[in-house]
Amino acid sequence: MSTTTAPANSAEARRRLADTLTADGALSPGSPWQRAFAETPREVFVPRFTLTGPDGRREVGPGAPGYLDAVYTDTTLTIRRDSAGTPVSSSSQPSLMARMLEVFTVPADARVLEIGTGTGYNTALLCHRLGADHVTTVDVDPDLTTSARDRLASTGHAPLVLTRDGTEGHPEGAPYDGILATCGVDRLPTAWPQQVRPGGIIVTNIGNGVAVLTVDEDGTAAGSFLPDDAMFMRARPEPGHTAPAANQYTGLVMNSTGDSRTERSPLPADQIVHATAHEIWMLHHDVLAMTLHPDGTPVHGLVHPPTGSWARITQDGDQVTVEHGGPRDLWAERLDLTAQWTSAGRPAPGAYTLTVSSCGTHTLRRTGTSPMSWTL
Description:
Blueprint: H1 10-23, H2 32-39, H3 42-45, E1 49-53, E2 56-60, H4 67-71, E3 77-81, E4 87-91, H5 94-103, E5 112-115, H6 121-130, E6 135-139, H7 142-154, E7 160-163, E8 176-185, H8 191-194, E9 196-206, E10 209-215, E11 221-225, H9 250-255, E12 259-264, H10 269-273, H11 278-283, E13 288-292, E14 299-304, E15 309-316, E16 319-325, H12 330-343, E17 352-356, E18 362-366, E19 372-375
Parallel strand pairs: 5-6, 5-8, 6-7, 8-9
Antiparallel strand pairs: 1-2, 3-4, 9-10, 10-11, 11-17, 12-16, 13-14, 14-15, 15-16, 17-18, 18-19
C-alpha cells in the first residue's frame, strides 16, 4: 500500500488497506471480507517480523519508525525461518489473502477448516465473517498455534486451534463446507477432499498457482487456478523440518562428473532453468534450480534430491554444454516443458485446470489454443 503520510492509528491503517485492496480488485466492494480487513488488527498477529529489501533483511517491531505503515503494506511479513534460512511462516500478502477469501465461496453459516494457522491473522478474518465456532484451524508447529490462540483470544475470537500435520486435515470435525490452505502443497492431500462435503470447496496453493476446486459426490476435486502466479511457504511434516534448498547442492552441481553433450539451445539457458511455467512448477516441483558464478561465468544447475539426479549447464552463444548424472536427464525434461510452454504463448496459471480423483491421481490440463494434458 502506498501512502503519502503515516497512518495515525491502527483503525486508520486498516481502513486504508481495505480501501486499497478494494480499489485494486482484490476485494469486492461491500463484501463481508472488506469489512473483515477493515476491522481486524494485523499488528496483533505480527508484533515482530522481518522484511527483505534492497538493503537486505531487517527486523521490524513496535516503536520502530514506520511500524504501522509496514504492517499494513501489501506485502508478506516473515516471522520464522528454518535452520537453512528458508522462510517457513509468515503473514501472507494481504492482496493474495483477499483474492483467496473472495473465491472461498462458502455460505455465511459454513463450517470451515483452515490449514496453516501461522500467525492467526487469516484465521481472524475467517472468524470475523463466519463466527469462531465455525472455524477450525491446524498447524504443525506448537509454538505457532499457542501464540495464535492467545492472539485470537485477545481480539475476541476462540476458534478450535489444533497442533497437527495439516496434510491430514481434521477428520474428527468432518465434513466441512470448505478447506482453505494458507500453505503450499505439491499435490492435493487425499485427506482433504474426503473431509469436504459434496459441493464444498478447497482453495490452496499448488505449484505456482492457487487452485479453486469443488468436491464432487464421488470425492473428485476439480476446478481451475486463479489468473496470476502465487506461492505460499510449503507445508511442513514436522516443526523442525528443513526443506531441501539449492545452496545445499552447489557442490553436487559444480564437482560431479557424468555424461556430457553440446547442443543448440532455442532460449537462453537461464530462461529455461528458471522458467516460471505452471507445468514446470507442477511436474518439476521437487527439482531445485540454481545459477552460480564461480569465475564470473554463469553456471546453471538443476538437482533432483530424491534421486540424486543433477545437471550442469553452461552457454556459449546459442550453444549449451550439458553435463548430467543420475537416472533423470533434468535438462532435457526442463527444455521440453519450457518449449511447450513458450510455443503456447507462456500462459499464466489461469489457463490451467486440475482434476484430482478420489484415489489421488492428478490431471493437469492447459486450455486455450495449445491444449495439453499431464497425469501427475
